Amino acid sequence: MSLGTAARFARRELRGGLRGFRIFLACLALGVAAIAGVGSVRSAIQAGLTDQGAILLGGDAQAEFTYRFASDEERAWLESVSTALSEITDFRSMAVVDGPDGPERGLTQVKSVDDAYPLLGEMRLDPPMPLAQALDGDTQPGAVMAPVLADRLGLSPGDSFRLGTQSFTLSAIIETEPDDAGDGFGLGPRTLVRTSDLASSGLLAPGSLYESEYRLLVPDGTDMDALRAEAEARFQDTGIRWRDARNGAPGIARFVDRLASFLVLVGLSGLAVGGIGVSAAVRAYLARKTGVIATLRTLGASRRVIFLTYFLQIGALGLLGIAIGLVLGAVIPLLFAPIIAASLPIPVMFTLYPGPLAEAAVYGVLTALLFTLWPLARTEEVRAAALFRDALDSARALPARRYVVATAALLALLVGVAMVFSGDPRITLWTAGGILGALVILAVAATGIRALAHRATPAMRGRPVWRWALGAIGGPRETAASVVLSLGLGLSVLAAIGQIDGNLRNAIQRDLPDVAPSYFFVDIQPNQIDGYLERLESDPAVGRVDTAPMLRGVITRINGQNAQEVAGDHWVVRGDRGITYAAQPDSRTTVTAGEWWPEDYDGPPQISFAAEEAEEIGLNLGDEITFNVLGRDITATITSFRDVDFSTAGIGFVMTLNPTALQGAPHTFISTVYAEPEAEAQILRDLADAYPNITAIRVRDAIDRVAELLEGIGAAIRWGAAATLLTGFLVLIGAAAAGEGARTYEAAVLKTLGASRARILQSFALRSALLGAAAGVVALGAGILGGWAVSHYIMETDFTVVWSSAIGIIAGGVLATLLAGIGFAWRPLAARPAQVLRARE
Questions:
Q1: Where exactly are the transmembrane stretches of this chain (predicted)?
Q2: What does the DSSP assignment read for 274-289?
């Protein structure tokens, strides 16, 4: 009965239109739209990867080996289960061009192929020609190259260059490589040649660092799960790595999922900001309904009827706001689909995806309930007589216990849903904790600002503009709490992201080059290491040279169990890892637990494992690790843990074994060289001329590639934070609009007492600027705290305050409140005092 009565009352209230609820709708719609939009783009990318997975992979399935080609038995089985097979190798090398001032060199990611490549897709070249023709060459083997590398080396079709000791003719420039996205991140641009033409190059010698990939086309209807299981069972001890077209570009898929999950969490921050606006709008609306509620209570309406009346009304408007957000989140990606698709190196398929829309709707409903339940519940605690005076201020600070419990349950449910949807509970909990912590800090700060303004008002005698501004901030009806909470939370998110982004950039672009080596040399053959060291150790410009033998292997088992079942998706077991051996630890190695083997140890294989990675996986001393090197299984016992610092870009191995454990295995050496910048070019020339097979990676170039990637990530995150800030600005506008009546009355009184319009405007502007500065300072503190926590605990980097970002945050707070305050000051200033004061009588 009460529900039906409340529904009729709510329907009549809704006839009054959306007055007072525009900000409510905008805040809710913007937050939902941001989450729906990010989810729709993620679904479009995932659909593109799935639909074009075979092309991205280069076949229906792929078997991959490290340091070797498939054995006769492995190749025979691959041919037996496929209708077509293509063999590819992938490795880094140096492309060398003879110039007028000596050889010019550029790091390149070489892909060597057979005549069957590509099984799927089309290689587009400039000038147009079939790939087979381009690789035939004329008097020497042909090659094709990425445009950026050709430009860097000054090459045009018809020119010659070298890979190792083999000369090639550049036949064409690569316009489109069908499987480039599936190849993952590379430090150098692509060069493509035939594998048979590398026979005399010295680049594929035993122990050289290369990967061989076998792409397969399989008969229609093949059970891919069964095929994978058979491959892994048949060759489980040979180090084979298998993937199929359902996961054609796993690195990109992981990256997209994690970035999208983080952006959804940023969108949740926007919803939290919008929730403050929703709550403020509900409070303001109920305050205007004092007379209506009082009349209903006088006529015998129960608390339940009043609560349900406004719950249903605001619920209907909330659903409208969520619907608007879902429409925007679905339509905007479709409208910008051509631009998004053009900016991505992978296929995308834009259409309406119900999954992300449902996810955004759940977030919207939970947020609306969370932020409207409290102000609605407080109406039950107000007596009829008190309602005629003030609908909410006369109520208790806390509503009935059941509503407090319901609010806590909604908050827990929202966090739980976010953990499930994001797929990363740790980051979700950090984000939720950061938002809640920021809200607590901002709420305490808002109370402190009002108290400070109230105490400072008497000290401003003789300075009326300051006195009026501080008196208004410290007064009972000023919207300081709404301004500081809404704008402050948006600025806090932006400040935290700015600090994290700035510190990460500093670590990569400023701090890392100070501790990183000049060059990273790989594929140094054992018979070359003495001459290599002799050249460097005799050079006074070289401060330090580190060398280590290196093999690569795949961890297959931990304590006899499948490694990925034990360690999950940890990066150590996801692919092949570098392995080294050492009789004794060097002076920079710190053993944190266990003991190193004796220098002349010749017993069963022992291993020293990186301490941090071991803790993440859950390894203990005495555990057994089985890894595959060149098709041979080696099982070693963990006898020690040691600190490994990968942040310096130096040599670092997760696994170090005793020398006899790898005795007889072909391997090469890697080396880092720390030298004066002016000597780097000569070092590279001398070593490249003496040892053409050695690949030199200039660390600063690698840093620049990483920084370029981070720029794109940072831009996406900053756009997400900007949406949060926009929501905060909308809440700020709502607060300014809600206080327009009070400012009109205030201006009328001041005019009556002789104040000029200019002084009143100065007071309004000063009030807004002070609140904005306060919100900016508090947000900066919260943002710095959040940035430090993420940098220290998640990214494990040093943290320093990025003052350029900090000053921008404070300036943004002042500017936003000034714009909103002045924008809603003109009507109060223009109102005639007599009309305003008579109306108040």
A1: 262-286, 307-340, 360-377, 403-421, 427-453, 769-790, 802-826
A2: HHHHHHHHHHHHHHHT
**Scanning the structure block, which residue is given the tokens 């033998």?**
549
Contact partners, residue 585, CB within 8 Å, separation at least 6: 591, 596, 608, 642
Residues 6+ apart with CB under 8 A from 827: 740, 744
Among 364, 353, 268, which Cα is nearest to 325's? 364
CA distance 278 to 365: 12
Q: Where are the domains of the chain?
A: 1-54+253-423, 88-215, 441-516+699-841, 542-675
Tokens 């009070």, residue located: 742
Please give the pLDDT value at position 729. Answer: 67
Question: Which pair of structure tokens corresponds to residue 659?
Answer: 């020398």
| pLDDT confidence bin for 640, thresholds 50/70/90 | very high
Strand-pairing partners, residue 683, are none
Does residue 48 contact residue 348 with C-beta atoms inside 8 Å? yes
CA torsion through residues 378, 381, 384, 387, sign: negative
Q: Residue 493 and residue 434: Cα distance in Å, rounded?
A: 9
Q: 386: closest CA among 377, 376, 398, 394?
A: 394
Q: Which tens digits make up the pLDDT trace of 669-721?
A: 888 888 887 888 888 888 888 888 888 877 766 666 666 666 665 666 666 56
Q: How large is the angle between the packed helices 757-789 and 464-474, nearest 10 degrees? A: 50
Number of Cα atoms under 13 Å in the Cβ half of residue 39: 30
Burial class (CB in 10 A: 0-12, 13-18, 19+), 275: buried
Please report, for residues 313, 462, 542, 671, 683, the alpha-carbon distance to residue 678 in angstroms, rounded to integers and kept in the order given.
73, 66, 11, 20, 10
Query: Burial letters for 667-703: b for 16+ Cβ neighbours within 10 Å, e otherwise?
Result: bbbbbbbbbeeebbeebbeebbeebbbbbbbbbbebb
pLDDT-wise least confident of 109-113, 426-430, 620-624: 426-430
Query: What single DSSP character describes residue 518?
Result: S
- Residue 770, pLDDT above cutoff 90: no
Q: Which two tokens stand for residue 399?
A: 């509503």
State the burial class of residue 754 (Cβ atoms within 10 Å of its Cβ: 0-12, 13-18, 19+): exposed
